[in-house]
């Protein structure tokens, strides 16, 4: 879904950047093909970054000259919290929020989430190895087995 959002942003004439430690370049290109898009047609408007250095500071520096309307996908939220030398996750999210970019975070869901009790996870189910005030986010979107739930973060 997040790659689809990036493709739609590019089709609208905006730039999109996909930061990931989950996928290698070949995986991202395969995903393009899987959603019926051709990476080559977005030359110059879409890029992905698989650097081991991904953090809020890294993203902000990489996109310092990004035009307004740039969509940034971070795959995934918890990767910002992996290295002890990075600032706390809350501080990183605040820095990204103040960057003026449109940022989408893919997030891991805690293993305790039980789909038999509710059809979609919600903010209480986001896996957080360290504390994070989820009210820092403007909107949420949760998916499970074809069901999608959008809502304002509160």
What does this entry show, briefly?
This protein is of the alpha/beta class and 154 residues long.
Would you give an account of this structure?
- The chain has 154 residues and is an alpha/beta fold.
- It has a single domain (2-109), classed as 3-Layer(aba) Sandwich (Rossmann fold).
- Helices cover 23% and strands 20% of the residues.
- It has 4 helices and 6 strands; from the N terminus they run H-E-H-E-H-E-H-E-E-E.
- It has helices at residues 2-11, 25-34, 56-62, 89-97; strands at residues 16-20, 46-49, 71-75, 102-106, 139-144, 147-152.
- The chain has a 4-stranded parallel beta sheet with strand order 2-1-3-4, with helices on one face. Strands 5-6 form a two-stranded antiparallel ribbon.
- Helix 3 (56-62) runs parallel beside helix 4.
- The longest helix is centred in the first third of the chain and has 10 residues, at 2-11.
- It is globular.
């Amino acid at each position: 879904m997040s790659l689809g959002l990036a493709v739609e942003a590019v089709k609208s004439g905006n730039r999109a950047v996909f930061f990931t430690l989950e996928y290698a370049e070949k995986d991202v290109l395969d995903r393009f093909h899987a959603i019926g898009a051709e990476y080559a047609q977005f030359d110059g408007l879409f890029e992905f970054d698989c650097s081991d250095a991904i953090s809020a500071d890294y993203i902000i520096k990489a996109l310092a000259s990004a035009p307004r309307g740039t969509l940034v996908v971070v795959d995934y939220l918890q990767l910002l919290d992996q290295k002890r030398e990075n600032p706390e996750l809350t501080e990183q999210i605040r820095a990204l929020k103040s960057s003026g970019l449109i940022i989408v975070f893919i997030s891991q869901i805690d293993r305790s989430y039980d789909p038999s009790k509710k059809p979609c996870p919600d903010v209480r189910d986001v896996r957080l190895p360290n504390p994070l005030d989820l009210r820092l986010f403007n909107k949420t979107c949760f998916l499970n087995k074809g069901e999608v739930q959008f809502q304002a973060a509160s």
